[in-house]
């Protein structure tokens, strides 16, 4: 029997990787996305003419639209990725983060619960709601330690606070109403189709263009990096085989200081696209004012996911970052319009 999945946020960075994977795996996929600045249907060109793929432009905060989508598509799985995702934007304007990540998730949960309650007993048993979240909900680590599933929540940015709130809502809908949910919290993703406001694509593209490479503070903050297709594989596994009511941490075991990430990208760019006018790219590094409330270190213990469901990532940081750089070099038509718009907005000329 064909499985039917409704993916929210499927035009975004991770959502589009999930949609591409599920369509290729033979799922019937409905992608529900509002197409904010971060949503881009060009990320789905590879699969958008497949008969098992459909798109609906809608806001997860729109109850009627979600109700109609659920009732007409009749999914046996919802994978919820739609969110406002950029920490710096959440500092400048938290309102959209509360609206989409908290109120939008609440609305989607209510509609999913109503839909699930209306299914017959057999279909109810087969239904799942998978909520996709971030390791940022756990706050900041010192030099030692790892985030585990039972690490207390201590979000520090408006973004992570809004995601923490959404995680709590999902958990409550399981315990209070019995909605069959599964949750996951992942570390920093990178790879193809990443919007050029985030550290890795911004660094690649500025290095290509010989522009300054902004590093917040002294670049000492540590993130754990996971290649996006490894995350998509983990998500399919968790959605289909994770235990109900449980959360799973997903991580790449690739802790890096930001300054080291930027230097690694500079070295690859110097080797792959040397440019005499630019010279050695490390000279482009510009230490800039730190992000307020900047979390020092994130690191994940993904042992539960490995032990219970057998997941391990296929890419190391070295293989994944090389692939990513080459993807951006080969796909200028995807990023050029976005980067130009982003640069104009930063300069205040948009
Ligand atoms: P993204 O910003 O690239 O994409 C978000 C998508 O959601 C976009 O297509 C956007 O149009 C859509 N969207 C936003 N508001 C919406 C609304 N109200 N209704 C419908 N669609 C809406 O984000 P991403 O990096 O792909 O992240 C996806 C999910 O994974 C998020 O929930 C995020 O918190 C989580 N996550 C991201 C990372 C990461 O490193 N990027 C890591 C862990 C978890
Ligand atoms: O120009 C920059 N210079 C810089 O030093 C930018 C954009 C970022 N940084 C730093 C801040 C972070 O320590 O690099 C690190 C990574 O920054 P981002 O790419 O903005 O990601 P981050 O804030 O870590 O959050 C990302 O990973 C977790 C996603 O945006 C979140 O949605 C996800 O939950």
Defining traits:
single chain, about 350 residues, alpha/beta, Rossmann fold, seven-stranded parallel sheet, 12 helices, about 45% helix, binds nicotinamide-adenine-dinucleotide, binds thymidine-5'-diphospho-beta-D-xylose, NAD, EC 4.2.1.46, lyase
Structure description:
It is a single chain. The protein has a domain at 4-187 and 228-251 and 293-314: Rossmann fold (3-Layer(aba) Sandwich). The chain contains twelve helices and twelve strands. The strands form three sheets. A seven-stranded parallel sheet has the order 3-2-1-4-5-6-10, with helices on both faces. It is globular. It has helices spanning 13-24, 63-73, 87-92, 95-117, 121-126, 158-177, 199-209, 228-241, 258-272, 303-309, 317-330, 332-347, and strands at residues 4-8, 28-33, 53-57, 77-80, 128-134, 181-186, 188-190, 213-216, 222-227, 247-250, 255-257, 285-288. Helix 2 (63-73) runs parallel beside helix 4 and helix 7 packs parallel to helix 9. The model has no long low-confidence stretch (mean pLDDT 96). With 350 residues, it is α/β, with parallel strands linked by helices. Bound molecules: nicotinamide-adenine-dinucleotide and thymidine-5'-diphospho-beta-D-xylose. Thymidine-5'-diphospho-beta-D-xylose binds next to helix 7 and strand 8.
CATH topology description of one domain: Rossmann fold
- Counting DSSP H or I runs of 4 or more residues, the number of helices is 12
User: Approximately how much beta-strand content do the residues carry?
Assistant: 15-25%
CATH class of one domain: Alpha Beta
Q: Using DSSP, what is the number of strands?
A: 12
- Let me know the largest β-sheet: 7 strands, parallel
- Show unreliable segments: none
CATH hierarchy: architecture of one domain: 3-Layer(aba) Sandwich
The side-by-side strand order for the widest beta sheet comes to 3-2-1-4-5-6-10
Report how far apart the termini are: 49 Å
Cofactor: NAD(+)
Pfam family, one: GDP_Man_Dehyd
EC number: 4.2.1.46
Catalytic activity: dTDP-alpha-D-glucose = dTDP-4-dehydro-6-deoxy-alpha-D-glucose + H2O
């Amino acid at each position: 029997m064909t499985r039917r999945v409704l993916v929210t946020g499927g035009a975004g960075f991770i959502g589009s990787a999930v949609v591409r994977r599920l369509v290729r795996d033979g799922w019937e996929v409905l992608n529900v996305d509002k197409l904010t600045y971060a949503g881009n249907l060009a990320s789905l060109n590879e699969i958008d003419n497949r008969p098992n793929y459909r798109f609906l432009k809608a806001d997860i905060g729109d109850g009627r639209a979600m109700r109609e989508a659920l009732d007409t598509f009749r999914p046996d799985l919802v994978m919820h990725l739609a969110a406002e995702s950029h920490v710096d934007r959440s500092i400048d304007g938290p309102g959209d983060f509360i609206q989409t990540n908290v109120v939008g998730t609440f609305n989607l949960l209510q509609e999913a619960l109503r839909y699930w309650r209306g299914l017959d007993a057999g279909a109810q048993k087969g239904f799942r709601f998978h909520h996709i979240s971030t390791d940022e909900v756990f706050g900041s680590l010192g030099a030692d330690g790892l985030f585990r599933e039972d690490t207390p929540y201590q979000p520090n940015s408006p973004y992570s606070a809004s995601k923490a709130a959404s995680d709590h809502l999902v958990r409550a809908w399981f315990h209070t109403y019995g909605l069959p949910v599964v949750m996951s919290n992942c570390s920093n993703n990178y790879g193809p189709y990443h919007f050029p406001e985030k550290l890795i694509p911004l660094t690649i593209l500025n290095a290509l263009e010989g522009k300054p490479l902004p590093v917040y503070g002294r670049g000492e903050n540590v993130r754990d990096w996971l290649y996006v297709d490894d995350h998509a594989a983990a998500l399919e596994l968790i959605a289909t085989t994770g235990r109900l009511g449980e959360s799973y941490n997903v991580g790449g075991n690739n802790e890096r200081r930001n300054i080291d990430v930027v230097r690694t990208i500079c070295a690859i760019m110097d080797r792959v696209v040397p440019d005499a006018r630019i010279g050695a790219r490390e000279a482009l590094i510009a230490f800039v004012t730190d992000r307020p409330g900047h979390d020092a270190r994130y690191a994940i213990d993904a042992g539960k996911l490995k032990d219970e469901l057998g997941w391990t990532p296929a890419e190391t940081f070295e293989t994944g970052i090389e692939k990513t750089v080459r993807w951006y070099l080969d796909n200028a038509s995807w990023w050029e319009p976005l980067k130009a718009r982003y640069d104009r907005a930063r300069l205040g000329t948009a």
